[in-house]
Amino acid sequence: MLDVERWAKIRHLHNDDHLSVRAIARQLGLARNTVRAALRSKVPLSYERALRPSCLDPFHDRIAEILGEWPEINAVRVAEILAPEGYTGRLTILRAYLRTVRPKPVQVFQRTTYRPGEIGQLDWARLPDPVRSPTGDLRPVWALILTLGYSRMLSVVFSFGTKLPDFLRAHAQLLNFIGGVPHTLVYDNLSSVVVAHQGKEVHFNEQFMIFADRYGFEPHACTPRQPHEKGLVESMVGYVKGNFWAGRHFADLDDLQGQADLWRDTVANVRLHSTLHERPIDRFGQDKAALRSLPTEVWIPPDVRFVRVSSQGFIHVDSNEYSVPALLARQQVSVHMNATTVVVYYQHEAVATHPRCWGRCQLMQNPAHLAKPWSLQVAPASPQRVAGLQLPAKARVTVAVPDLARYDALAQEDTDE
Predict the structure, then answer these.
(1) What is the mean pLDDT of residues 50-60?
(2) The overall pTM is greater than 0.85
(3) Cβ neighbours of 337 (radius 10 Å)
(4) 158, 175, 273, 415: which one has the fewest Cβ atoms less than 10 Å from its Cβ?
């Protein structure tokens, strides 16, 4: 078929540039008859290929009858039914035809109502813009959103990371905010929650199940690719992005969380809900009365790593390096991290504190850590420990030396006697 642009080009070359049919055909790589046909036609040329009869044509009504009775029947079974009636075509032709005429199922979802305290839904949402981290660089930020089924009470906690410690910490903060625990909590197939989902069998993350047991709720993992199973929190993702995030600026993670808490209390939970026609805050009293109690001690799981200090006095955590006092070279230390801070402990004593770096391959260094242990001058302290730390064998320190003159005096006294 000659497209519109080629048809217009032919007419332009002939009418405006006065080229011959032969010249136009040579320039555009077309047959001369095609050029002549384009010049004769006042509208773009179009060609319709004649439809060839198919061996399936006589069986269309019969196939429609079969599909009406058995909509899910496969092509092999249809061919078996049609064979005694005279169908001799191939299975591939039949399959292609069935794909075009088989009635497609329509998914209809029933609106679910929830009892107070029965259920909550959680999900991560990546926010559109980066936020400045404690080290000053811009990092992607995530929101963990919780929505209660009965009241539609909403809460959100922000994080630079979504690994298991980040997830459990944010999760605990959400439950602490609502002051209780729903009987069932619904999740997408997060790696922090689900290790494997095989059919109806779900294998949960063991560390997550310890958290669930401590808080006393039953986890439920949604069926893969079925977002309607957590439709409450899915709709809240768009609400957070459109009603809170849009049109605001945030200095850092603390500023972001502070603005979100204010929006949560003054906008999100006091609005008239479009489905319930009530405010979430007005229904929350019934929800909270039916929630399970929080653990006796408010528990936010720590993110603790055990690493060995390099020979240059650095620890390697999440692809970044943090300095520690040089006298700890090759020693084993524990690293305690939260969303903003990294604290290094040696023998239960804090020896280094850094802002947490959410970038990659960054070096976080405290100039005070550059002092070499063998150049320290400590007197008259014990040579075994300095500032509570065990010194390595090669460290040299100044020790108290007794006055040898007193031994001369004692020797003189013995002589006099």
Answers:
(1) 77
(2) no
(3) 21
(4) 415
